[in-house]
Design brief:
By secondary structure, the protein is mainly α. Helix content is about 70%, strand content about 0%. It has ten helices and no strands. This is Ceramidase. Keywords: Membrane, Transmembrane, Transmembrane helix.
Length: about 230
């Protein structure tokens, strides 16, 4: 396989070149903004390591997606998809640990389970003409919302709104990504840059929600117990 081969997947790109997708490239700054905001939360977060890990993963998505849309080559496309997958799998493992106290050795099973779920969902929807690996994360967000909405622990229930909102925004985002080639005739830049902007909002929201939950789940300090 030629990893330096040219890739033309988006409405905005009409020829090879470093600046062939200006909107798609610059809009990736939204991921950088999300990464910086989450990194800054490490100063006061209950779990600074979690904040930094999420920020680094967001930063890697920024770098890979920027490289892909600037260079339009196969290795950058693989890096773009790869780092998004890393974030999704990390969060799939984090969710049961953080919200339901599942042990680490069991929580890691969420990663292969999610990969299998993605393969199944992609195959099913591909059979009706809509194959996308992003449908599984979309369904996952709404599944998280349902799990929290009906959780026995009432302190978890308010978080369902965050994941429902993230799912709603991601629904719009995925629709815009799908519509990119359909609008080329009337809007040459396409809609993929909006996918970046909205996805950055989704990733920031789920990252911020994880940090809020970590703060809530933090054991009270001895000083607080004595107060």
């Amino acid at each position: 396989m030629d990893w330096t081969a040219y890739v033309d997947n988006y409405c905005e790109r009409i020829a090879p070149g470093l600046w062939g997708e200006p909107l798609n490239t610059v809009s990736n700054l939204a991921f950088l903004v999300a990464a910086v905001l989450i990194w800054r939360k490490a100063r006061t977060a209950a779990d600074p390591r979690l904040a930094r890990t999420l920020a680094v993963l967001l930063g890697l998505i920024f770098l890979a997606s920027t490289a892909f849309h600037a260079l339009a080559v196969r290795w950058a496309a693989a890096a773009d998809s790869g780092f998004i997958l890393v974030f999704v799998l990390y969060y799939a493992v984090l969710f049961p640990r953080l919200f339901f106290g599942v042990r680490r050795r069991l929580a890691w099973l969420a990663a292969p389970a999610f990969i299998a779920f993605t393969a199944l969902v992609t195959a099913v929807f591909a059979s009706i003409g809509f194959g996308s690996s992003y449908l599984a994360p979309l369904l996952g967000l709404f599944a998280f919302a349902l799990l929290l909405a009906f959780a026995r622990d009432r302190t978890l229930r308010p978080y369902w709104r965050n994941f429902a909102l993230a799912g709603g925004v991601f629904t719009v985002s995925l629709s815009l990504r799908t519509a990119d080639h359909s609008v080329c005739g009337s809007f040459p830049p396409g809609t993929h840059f909006l996918w970046h902007l909205l996805n950055a909002c989704v990733l920031y929201l789920v990252s911020h929600t994880a940090l809020r939950r970590a703060e809530q789940a933090r054991p009270a300090s001895p000083a607080a117990d004595r107060a």
